[in-house]
Structure formats: structure tokens, C-alpha cells
Fold this sequence. Notes:
The protein contains eight helices and no strands. The protein starts with a helix and ends in a 15-residue tail after the last helix. The protein is mostly helical. The longest helix has about 45 residues, at about 65-110. It has one domain. Helix 3 runs antiparallel to helix 4 and helix 6 (about 175-205) packs antiparallel against helix 8 (about 245-260). Belongs to the oxidase-dependent Fe transporter (OFeT) (TC 9.A.10.1) family. Its main location: membrane. It is a multi-pass membrane protein. Keywords: Membrane, Transmembrane, Transmembrane helix.
Amino acid sequence: MTxxxxxxxxxxxxxxxVVSILVAFLVKTDRRPLLKWVWGGVAVAAVLSIxxxxxxxxxxxxxxxxxxxxxxxxxxLVAVTFVTWMIFWMRRMARQMGQExxxxxEDAILIGPWAIVGVAFLxxxxxxxxxxxxxxxAAQGATDSVRPLIGISLGLLTAIVLGWLLYISALRINLTxxxxxxxxxxxxVAAGIFKYGxxxxxxxxxLPGLNNTAFDISASWPPEAWYAELLRGMVNFTPAPTVLxxxxxxxxxxxxLVIFLWPQRPALxxxxxxxx
Length: 276
């Protein structure tokens, strides 16, 4: 639930910021009548994202055990790819996102209402589909189906409240620091999803070593303890992981976390040309 809450918070705040940029641009340029087209695009993207999440959840349940394991393994790999791309993209593009969105919306206004719907839809649908896939992949290790829904709902609601407070200037958050820390936590979550995907491939017989455990602390590991729930939810820690699962977690988690937290080089600025 903790990991899924983090996914909902992080992805939800990105969606909220995107929508607030579009809304603020129209409000500040005295184009309030066009807001309905923005909200229309947002609504369509939200409905499709929820529908995609439902399709993943209920459609896969009808597959055979082998096909379920293969699908869940592939979904885990896709989710890890999305997480990795998303956190590095946001770190690089966060400062330019507002300018880029405003430029696209200005061009869309010149074309017509449906272009405005398209800009809002495309800006939200990417994050929405990412959220659906991440939610599905992270929820595979849950012990019941209720907690993941509670976690994603609380995360999205928190993001909406934070986004609204930021929009009305009632709250100030260092977004660079926020996305850095949540990005680092998502790397650990993604490492757990990657580990889960490797386990699914082993369950399906694609990868060997299902019975080769790296260690086994099951006898002294209290599964109902709060820290056991936290570690299982955040990093997919299991008391008896296989060797390949452990290698997968370490091979992804450690280098990606180091690269992500490595200080960025400041952008080089060109010296102004000397006047003759």
C-alpha cells in the first residue's frame, strides 16, 4: 500500500501540475471560455486510464496460470522501463515543462477547440497510462485487492489537494527536491517490481533457479509485523528470495539509484558575442 500510495502521489502530482499549467495559462490570458475544452480532454484521458487499469486487472484474471505469469512478468518489465524513463525525464525537463505546454496550447488555440482537447488529452493520458501500468505491476505482490485501491486513491487525492494548494499559492513546495526524493524512492519500488518480474519468469519456466534461494530467514521473519509489510510493499522484500531475484534487485536498484542521485552538471551557457 505504501509503494502504491507513492506511485499515486508522484504520478498524480505530475498530472495535477500539467493541468494547472494549462488552466493558469488560459485564466491569465483571459480565455476562460476555453477551459471547458481543456477539462474535456482531461476527462477523456482519465476515463481511458481507468478503463485501461480495469482491463489489466480483470482481463488478465481470465488467462491460464502460465499466461498470467508471463503477462505479469512482461508488465513488470514495462513498468520498470516507464519508471526509469519518467524519473530521469522529469529531472531533466521539469523547468521547461511549463513553457513547452503553454506553447503547445497557444498553437492549439489557433487551430480550434478540438486541438485544445487534444493537447490536454495527450498531456494527461501519458501519465494516466503510466499510473495504470505501475499500479498493476506494484499490486501483484499485495495480499488482498482492497489495500492497493486504497493506496492509489489516497495518493491521487493527496496529489490533487497539493496541486490545488500550489495553484492558489496557499502552499509552496520545492518541487525539484520533491521529485528528487520521490524519484529515489520510486527507484527502490521499481527494483522490487523488477525482482517480482524475474520471479514470474521463473514461475513460468522461462528462467531457471526457482528453487535456488539466495538466503532464507523465514523462520525468524514475522510476516505480519509492520516493518515486514513496509519492506514487502516498498521494495518487494521476501524472506527467501531466489538467487536471480536478488541479483536482479541489486543489478537495477544500486546503479540506477546512484546515477539518479549523482549531481547534475550545470548547463553551459554560451558567452555573448563581442560587438565590433
